[in-house]
Amino acid sequence: MLRYHIMVLPGSFWRLCFASVVFLAMQLVCLHAYSQPPQPGNYSEAKYEVAAELNRDAPMRDGITLKIDIFRPKQDGKYPAVLLQTPYNKSGQVARAKKFAARGYAVINVDSRGRFESGGEWDPFSAKHKTDGYDLVQWVAKQPWCNGNVGTYGLSYMGWASWWTASQAPPALKAIVPEVAPPDHFYNCPYQNGIFVCWMMDWAGTMSARLPHSAGPGAYGGFAVDREKAYSNLPYIDFDKTRNYKPNPWWKKWINQNTAQGEYWKGISYQTPQSYAKIKVPSLAISGWFDANFPGTPMNYLGMKKYGGSPAARRPRIVIGPWQHIINRHRVAAGVDFGPQAIIDWDGYVLRWFDYHLKGIDNGVLDDPPVHVFVMGCNKWRAAADWPLPQTEFTKFYLHGSKTLSTQPPGKEQPDRYVYNPEKPTPSAPFGNAHIDGPQDISKSAARNDVLVYQTPILKEDVEVVGPITSRIFAATSCKDTDWMIRLSDVHPDGKALFLGEGVMRARHRDPDNGGRFNPNKLSRIEPDQPYEYHIDFWRPTGNVFARGHRIRIEISSSYYPYYLRNPNTEADNIGLATKFQTAKQTIFHDNVRASYVVLPLIPVDKKTQRE
Predict the structure, then answer these.
(1) Pick from 63, 306, 288, 272: nearest CA to 164
(2) CA 528 to mean position of chain CA atoms
């Protein structure tokens, strides 16, 4: 933040007041205008020769040892440490470790319990990963080359490990950088609001043993090949046989414990108010609009802001770019070029963050806005004081029987209907490992009879949408269970509909005592042909300018396969045990009594600023 120094001369008091008011007004305008991406500024120089100590042992409280690699300055001294815990082979994390070590950090890469050369039994969601994190932090802090200050970083599962560790409050932990970290397991994977995501079934296969398990060539050890056929078999619990997983003690727990009340899931959960309250350290998190693990980042921002265990913890920071899961690698996704600002010096920013928190260098990083988000369509960044952005105008867009979407509430309108046949599901947008690869054109699937489409008239001016998206739909099904899926796309003048965001929910996870919101802890009853209210939050929101001449489109379906495994529409409590499919007749209501709508986070935009 800029600092202005004004000399006060005799008799200039009122001029000073006026200047202060003008300055504050300028600051408010700047907060609402486009900004620069997060700036690395000055951070530690690469001035150290790096020494490596490989395959050392780190003891855990239960007697097993984890294998670690240490990269630190060759010059004797005490240095702050950065810890990374990975199930993907610590030997693959060397380049970043050396980059940080050359700048005065000791970086410790660890093979997770039960993986590669580390001791113990591999279970991806064993609660022992939490205590391992605590033990590692404290062990590192006591080493002769460590100054006692430890931070963590890492992508994806390693981001999980950062949060799991922080929730145990090891005294030597001073700051964390969880990157594309998933949330708890019923808000994303393996259950996305109660619905299985197929890529987590792939992951279970390739991660089913101590060493990577392969089903052949291709992504996820070949498990991502021909998904449409591979996941067509019932019951889902037999995927360990039909997909040839290595025998393990945890796969069936994933299926049998099908709510968040399962002891298995409760042991590794970290997003409760009680867990957040134990976290004392500041966090800097990052994700991308097309990251399949996106919801963890904003959920943790809000959770830490409300429940964090110290003033520093209650000032979290987030960065959201136009990326997929592997952040900050490409400026082009699905053929869309997001411009030069799509790539930032992320490692530089992380180093600046650790320089402050682990080295005590007063570099002004805390003066930066806590929120940076990339806005697609105009390809610019916004810096903000909070998430959601303070200037957001949450606006209801109602569904209408004419298949239109508008801010006008509906009158007396007839409902819309479609048929969901699980044996002929709506095809999902293309995706690679786990992540829909950017703003894919989904216009072809939208033309199907099992998809309802609602869209605005052609926009007469640009509309900027940035932040959380929620929806309320009134719906009925002829079956005793089903899934509801809502998608947002940007319809271009040539007819392309570019995928931007989505919300999904298994019907039986609706909470009748909480406005039909998702409840991971229990199932409710669904009576056939009975209208129910569903409040569905988009787990994948967006930051996008819908340009003049485009349309805003909402789609509703009950499948999006193979990204999501199909709900068989039976009354079985546990979908993973179902052995047959049933066709469902679906009804969406949108009248003056049962108005269905999507709430979009509109950002007031100065037209001159937007066009610059």
Answers:
(1) 272
(2) 34
Q: Does CATH number 3.40.50.1820 belong to domain 50-184+269-384?
A: yes
Q: What is the pLDDT of residues 431-469, one digit of tens each?
A: 877 778 899 999 999 999 999 999 999 999 999 999 999
Predicted local distance difference test score (pLDDT) of residue 567: 98
Per DSSP, what are the bridge partners of residue 517?
Answer: 511, 535
Other beta carbons within 10 angstroms of residue 233's beta carbon come to: 12
Task: Spell out the CATH class of 394-611.
Answer: mainly beta
The domain locations on the chain are 50-184+269-384, 194-263, 394-611
Which residues have a Cβ under 8 Å from the Cβ of 402 and sit 6 or more positions away? Answer: none
More confident residue, 17 or 549: 549
Number of neighbouring beta carbons within 10 Å of residue 448: 15
What is the SS3 assignment for 114-162? CCCCCCCCCCCCCCHHHHHHHHHHHHHHCCCCEEEEEEEEEECHHHHHH
**Residue 136 corresponds to which tokens in the numbers above?**
């590692």
Which residue bears the tokens 């991308």? 288
Give pLDDT tens digits for 460-503.
999 999 999 999 999 999 999 999 999 999 999 999 999 999 99
Q: Which residues contact 140 (CB under 8 A, 6 or more apart)?
A: 58, 81, 83, 106, 108, 146, 150, 172
Half-sphere exposure (Cβ direction) of 368: Cα atoms closer than 13 Å: 26
Torsion, CA 450, CA 456, CA 457, CA 460, rounded to 10: -150
Is the alpha carbon torsion for 585, 590, 591, 594 positive or negative?
Answer: positive
If 0-12 CB within 10 Å is exposed, 13-18 middle and 19+ buried, where does residue 169 land? middle
- Taking the C-alpha atoms of residue 296 and residue 596, their distance in angstroms, rounded to an integer, is 27
Amino acid at 463: V
**b vs e for 17-40, b when ≥16 Cβ sit within 10 Å of the residue's Cβ?**
eeeeeeeeeeeeeebbebbebbbb
Tokens at 289, concatenated: 């609009």
What is the number of other CB atoms lying within 10 angstroms of the CB of residue 7?
6
Return the HEC string of 242-294.
HCCCCCCCCHHHHHHCCCCCCHHHHHHCCCCHHHHHHCCCCEEEEEECCCCCC
- What is residue 175's predicted lDDT score, i.e. its pLDDT? 98
